[in-house]
Amino acid sequence: MRDEYDVTKLKVKRRGVLPALQGQDAKQAKVRITISLDQDVVDYFKTVAEQPGALPYQTQINQALRKIIDSDEQFDLEDMKKKLLEDPDFLRKIADYIRAA
């Protein structure tokens, strides 16, 4: 280990509220996170973001999540399970996946 390090060259990964937005309304403050998304989801939003006048893809993902949160319809896990178990296409894909494993 070295006795001295040049700390001016260190890369700092920040988490939490961005420094420029600290002190603002918590709902509107942007928070830097690391998240794993399916590649096709990211590709979709990046493709849309390439259109003239489109918002950046990260903003679009944030807006899509905000729309879900703000919607009147609450997410019901049990209801979703029931719907999936009654969906023949879903069941067929699960069966195909199991056969291929």
Mean pLDDT: 82
Strand content: under 5%
Alpha-carbon distance between the termini? 48 Å
**Helix content bin:** 40-55%
Contiguous uncertain segments of 5+ residues: none
How does the major sheet shape up? 2 strands, antiparallel
| Helix/sheet category | mainly alpha
N-to-C SSE string, H for helix and E for strand: EEHHHH
Please report the number of helical segments.
Answer: 4
Oligomer: single chain
Outline type: extended
Across the major sheet, the strand order is 1-2
Q: What's the Cα radius of gyration?
A: 21 Å
The strand count comes to 2
List the helices and strands and how they pair.
Layout: E1 16-17, E2 31-32, H1 39-49, H2 57-70, H3 77-85, H4 88-100
Antiparallel strand pairs: 1-2
Describe this structure in words.
It is built from four helices and two strands; from the N terminus they run ββαααα. The chain is mainly α and 101 residues long. Strands 1-2 form a two-stranded antiparallel sheet. Helix 1 (39-49) packs across helix 2 (57-70). The longest helix has 14 residues, at 57-70. The chain is extended. The mean pLDDT is 82.
Please outline what is shown here.
The protein contains 4 helices and 2 strands. It has helices at residues 39-49, 57-70, 77-85, 88-100; strands at 16-17, 31-32.
How would you describe this structure in keywords?
mainly alpha; extended; 101 residues; two-stranded antiparallel ribbon; 47% helix; 2 strands
